[in-house]
Specification:
The protein is α/β, with parallel strands linked by helices and 408 residues long. Helices cover 39% and strands 17% of the residues. It binds pyridoxal-5'-phosphate. Pyridoxal-5'-phosphate binds next to helix 4. It catalyses: (sulfur carrier)-H + L-cysteine = (sulfur carrier)-SH + L-alanine.
C-alpha cells in the first residue's frame, strides 16, 4: 500500500503538462531523470519576469535593472540556504551541471602536473568523463576508474587502494542517473581529504530527491541543474569552497567577470562574478529559486519517502514480468529503474510505451561505460517523481507486458 502525507492530486494540478494527451492517451511522464516537469508557480515567475522587469543585471541604475538584480541575487541566496552553503559568493550560476564540471576541469588544468592522478567513478555520466579525459590530455595527468560491482555499487576497498598522495582530484556522482545508486559520498570525501585530494560531486541526479548539506559533507565542489528539480533548462549551480574558487582561474573572459581592463592587464572581479562572464540566464536563475521554494514547500522528507514507495511498488510489479531484469540493485537507490527484457531491444519497448502515452528513456543514458560493464546496448529507464502515481506505474507495467507480447 502506498501511504503518503502528500496530496498527490493537488500537486498534480500544479503541473499543467500532466493534463495533456500523447497519442490519444493521458501522458504518463516517467522520464524525470532526464528532466523534470515545471509547476505553474515556476511558470508564473518566468512570465512575470518577462512581463514586468526584464532588464540586464548589475549594470543599470534604472529601476528595472535594480529589480532584476535584486531578484537574481535573492535566488542565489535561496540556493545558498537550500544547500547550506557558507557564503553566497560560493554559489556560481552556470548553464547546468555540464558547464559546472567543465569550469572546474578547465581550472585544474593550471594546477595539475604530469603524473598527478584523477579518480573517477565507474558510473559517471558522459559529462563527468569527457572533461577529465580532456584535462588529462592537456596536463599529462592520469585518469583512474573506481570500479563497481554487479549491483551497481562502488567497490570502496578498491577506491581506498587507488587513492594515494598522487591523487589530486576525485569525481563522483551523488546519485547515478542510469542506475539510481546513491553513492556513499561522505565516505568518499573523507578518504580523499585524508590524502589531500579535492572532491567534485555531481549532484544533478541527487538534487531532485535529496537535500544535500554541503557544509556537512565538506565537499569541495558540487554541481546541479535546475531542470532536474522543477526549474527551467539552461541554468544550474556550481558550488565551490571559497579557497578553491580563489585558486582557480576564470573560465571565460568577457563582461561582468572583470574588475579593470586595460590592454596591458585585466584584473578579475571578486567572487562570484569572476566565473560569471557575460549576461547570464537571469530569468532562469530567478525561476531556479522559485523551483527550490516549490520543492521545499512540499518538503524533501515527504518527497523521498513517497518516491521510495513508488520505487518499491514499481520494482515489485515489474519483476512479475518473465525475463525482465533490473540493472542497478544497490541497497540505497533513488526512484530510477533501468531494465531490459531478454531478447527484446530497449528501443522497441520504448516506442510501444510511447504509443500508450508512457514516456520513458531508452538507450545508454549518457553512461555508456555502465552499459559496457553489463554487456548490454542500453536499457529502458523509468524514473519517478513525487507527482507520479501508483496508477501510472500500473499503466507502465501493463504497457511493458503488452510490448513483450507483441515483440516476442
Ligand atoms: C543530467 C545529468 C547531467 C547533465 O546535466 P546537464 O543539465 O545536461 O548539464 C550530469 N550528470 C548527471 C548525473 C545527470 O543526471
Amino acid at each position: 500500500m502506498i501511504q503518503t502525507v502528500l496530496d498527490i492530486q493537488a500537486i498534480r494540478k500544479d503541473f499543467p503538462i500532466l493534463n495533456r494527451k500523447v497519442n490519444g492517451k493521458p501522458l504518463v511522464y516517467l522520464d524525470n531523470a532526464a528532466t523534470s516537469q515545471t509547476p505553474q508557480q515556476v511558470i508564473d515567475v518566468i512570465v512575470d519576469y518577462y512581463s514586468n522587469y526584464n532588464a540586464n543585471i548589475h549594470r543599470g541604475v534604472h529601476t528595472l535593472s535594480q529589480q532584476a538584480t535584486d531578484a537574481y541575487e535573492q535566488a542565489r541566496i535561496k540556493i545558498q540556504k537550500h544547500f547550506n552553503i557558507a557564503k553566497p559568493y560560493e554559489v556560481i550560476f552556470t548553464s547546468g551541471t555540464t558547464h559546472g564540471i567543465n569550469l572546474v576541469a578547465n581550472g585544474f588544468s593550471s594546477i595539475l602536473k604530469k603524473g598527478d592522478e584523477i579518480l573517477v567513478s565507474a558510473m559517471e555520466h558522459h559529462s563527468n568523463i569527457v572533461p577529465w579525459q580532456m584535462l588529462c590530455e592537456r596536463t599529462g595527468a592520469i585518469l583512474k576508474v573506481i570500479p563497481m560491482n554487479q549491483d551497481g555499487e562502488l567497490v570502496m576497498e578498491e577506491y581506498s587502494q587507488l587513492l594515494s598522495s598522487k591523487t589530486k582530484l576525485v569525481f563522483c556522482n551523488h546519485v547515478s542517473n542510469a542506475l539510481g545508486t546513491i553513492n556513499p559520498i561522505k565516505k568518499i570525501i573523507e578518504k580523499a581529504h585524508g590524502l589531500g585530494a579535492a572532491v567534485l560531486v555531481d549532484g544533478a541526479q541527487a538534487s531532485p530527491h535529496i537535500k544535500a548539506d554541503l557544509q556537512e559533507l565538506d565537499v569541495d565542489f558540487y554541481t546541479v541543474s535546475a531542470h532536474k528539480m522543477c526549474g527551467p533548462t539552461g541554468v544550474g549551480m556550481l558550488y565551490g569552497k571559497e579557497e578553491w574558487l580563489k585558486k582557480l582561474p576564470p573560465y571565460q573572459g568577457g563582461g561582468e567577470m572583470i574588475a579593470e581592463v586595460t590592454f596591458e592587464k585585466t584584473t578579475y572581479a571578486d567572487l562570484p562574478h569572476k566565473f560569471e562572464a557575460g549576461t547570464p540566464n537571469i530569468c532562469g536563475g530567478i525561476a531556479f529559486g522559485a523551483a527550490l521554494d516549490y520543492m521545499n514547500l512540499i518538503g524533501f522528507d515527504a518527497i523521498s519517502q513517497y518516491e521510495n514507495e513508488l520505487l518499491e511498488y514499481a520494482t515489485e510489479q515489474l519483476l512479475t514480468i518473465d525475463g525482465l531484469k533490473i540493472y542497478g540493485t544497490a541497497a540505497k537507490k533513488t526512484s530510477v529503474i533501468s531494465f531490459n527484457i531478454e531478447g527484446i531491444h530497449p528501443y522497441d519497448i520504448g516506442s510501444i510505451l510511447d504509443k500508450l502515452g508512457v514516456a520513458v528513456r531508452t538507450g545508454h543514458h549518457c553512461a555508456q561505460p555502465i552499459m559496457d560493464f553489463f554487456k548490454i546496448p542500453g536499457t529502458v529507464r523509468a524514473s519517478f517523481s513525487f507527482y507520479n502515481t501508483k496508477e501510472e506505474i500500473d499503466v507502465l507495467v501493463s504497457g511493458v507486458k503488452r510490448a513483450k507480447a507483441m515483440l516476442e
